[in-house]
Amino acid sequence: MSRILGKAFLANFFGKSPSANHPTAIKMIPTIQPVSIQKIGNELAVAWSDGKESYLPLENLRRKCPCAACCGEPDVTGYVEKPAPVYSAKSFDLTSWQVIGGYAIEPTWADGHHSGLYSYPLLRSLGEESGVGG
Question: Which CATH number, 3.40.50.720, 3.30.2020.30, 3.40.50.2000, 2.60.40.10, labels domain 30-130?
Answer without folding.
Answer: 3.30.2020.30
